[in-house]
């Protein structure tokens, strides 16, 4: 855990620099190119969102499966 905090801090700093570069590039372009750039960003966002949704669905499905096992009544012997 102690190693994770510095790595996340450096990653956030690098991501922040990239956002500034994209902002400056988009600001220097005309409206049509900025629209195309926004579409490209949206397209690049789709795979991570789908992967996250898949993990959340699997976690939900596994959670409900375990919840059903716990709520089943047991028959007396």
Mean pLDDT: 76
Q: Write down the Rg.
A: 22 Å
> Spans of 5+ residues with little confidence (pLDDT < 50)?
none
Please indicate the percent range of residues in DSSP E strands (runs of 2 or more).
under 5%
User: Biggest sheet: strands, sense, closure?
Assistant: none
Tally of strands: 0
Shape label: elongated
How many individual helices? 2
* H/E element sequence: HH
Structural class comes to mainly alpha
**What's the N-to-C terminus distance?**
48 Å
Helix content: over 70%
Question: Any chance you could write out the topology, listing elements then pairs?
Answer:
Blueprint: H1 4-28, H2 31-71
Describe this protein's structure:
- With 77 residues, the chain is mainly alpha-helical.
- It is 86% helix and 0% strand.
- The longest helix has 41 residues.
- It contains 2 helices and no strands.
